[in-house]
Design a protein that fits this description.
Layout lengths: L2 H20 L7 E8 L4 E9 L14
Antiparallel strand pairs: 1-2
Length: 64
């Protein structure tokens, strides 16, 4: 296995782990979570998460 293939396999395994840990069944307001390899710009996984709307919104914009 060459170095690039090994890096991609490791990135995909981590993306799968992250998606499994946060994915929820769609029920209520939804956010789409996407895991993207920044080096290749390849989308490695996506899932939905729900959130609750409180009287004071707690959502923040997070940039990288």
């Amino acid at each position: 296995m060459n170095a690039e293939l090994a890096r991609h396999a490791a990135a995909q395994a981590k993306a799968d782990e992250v998606i499994r840990s946060v994915a929820e069944a769609p029920d209520g307001p939804l956010l789409l979570v996407t895991v993207t390899d920044l080096e290749t710009r390849q989308r490695l996984g996506t899932c939905f998460v729900t959130y609750q709307v409180d009287s004071t919104p707690q959502l923040r914009l997070v940039t990288s």
